[in-house]
Amino acid sequence: MSDQKRPIPQPGILDIAPYLPGKSGAPGSKAIKLSANESPLGASPQAVAAFAAAADHLEIYPEGSSRLLREALGEVHGIDPNAIVCGNGSDDLLHLLAQTYLGHGDEAVMNRYGFSVYPIITKAAGAEIVTVDEVDYTANVDALLAAITPRTRIVWLANPNNPTGTYLSVAEVARLHAGLRPDILLVIDSAYAEYVTAADYSVGLDLVEAHENVVMVRTFSKMGLAAARIGWMVGPGHVVDAINRIRGPFNVNLPAQLAGAAATRDIAFNQRLKAHNAQWRDWLTAQLQSNRMRVIPSQANFVMVLFETPELAARAFETLAAAGYIVREIGASYGIHNGLRISIGSEEAMRGVAEVLKSMEGAQ
Description:
Organism: Devosia salina
Pathway: Amino-acid biosynthesis; L-histidine biosynthesis; L-histidine from 5-phospho-alpha-D-ribose 1-diphosphate: step 7/9
Number of strands: 13
Structural class: alpha/beta
Protein name: Histidinol-phosphate aminotransferase
EC number: 2.6.1.9
Catalytic activity: L-histidinol phosphate + 2-oxoglutarate = 3-(imidazol-4-yl)-2-oxopropyl phosphate + L-glutamate
């Protein structure tokens, strides 16, 4: 009999740094949360109504394939519903992709400031994560390709990227894919696609439809349904088949399926959310850009602000918190110790954040 006195995790599990979410205000406080890239306009009213109506059917298992949601997504985005897999948030699908295509001895490649979930799911699958340097906080295609080895099985690409807000053009993503072996899966994480205004951007569907080694992952969390936990993925038939074999049989609950389908079809709300974000993202960028603060141009629903020193970034975080604005520290999670990530919120919140940071700068 083993002399172990308790169950022991698989090798490497306890070496994984856990995900660190953005902070919230203390319970009962009136602090404005700008740390998690949530919708400042709430959720689609149609989605809210659909979610509430599902309360009449809570005793029934949800349809296992999320058919109604997949059909709505296919209708609006021009995609074959059979090419779509839905998940309990996009994190669920990213975990499934790692579990399916990575194992001991394998490697996955990502840019240095890519989404912090990628190392977690890669290591949890027993593989190694390889990070490569960026150019001015933007993924570098040449560096990513140079990191490919015979052990590479996945390339993770958040586009736009979190926490920097930067993106790769459609031409650069195509160049990245063209440099990969056919047995390497390119995962295009388009979590912030709804907010992109750049003319040379693509969500990745063109590559998915033309090749056998590309998938695109999306989420509803940034468009007002973060609490419902809904993600979706588009991929070639062999990838969809593999993921469907191991995903939970009821991995998207019924209220989420119905709310997601309604939100997908509420195009007017989604356009209003995008327009609000573009207006106040650009406004905040212009207001904060200065000799002591640098705002990285963003295509997402947040901006990353860089300060002269980590100490100034920490003081800015505390000053904003004292004024009632909770933003995202990104030193511990991403190694950008002189930066803060600020979600785009209401007009009132954006004007308040700008006032606090500019007054702090003037006092230096």
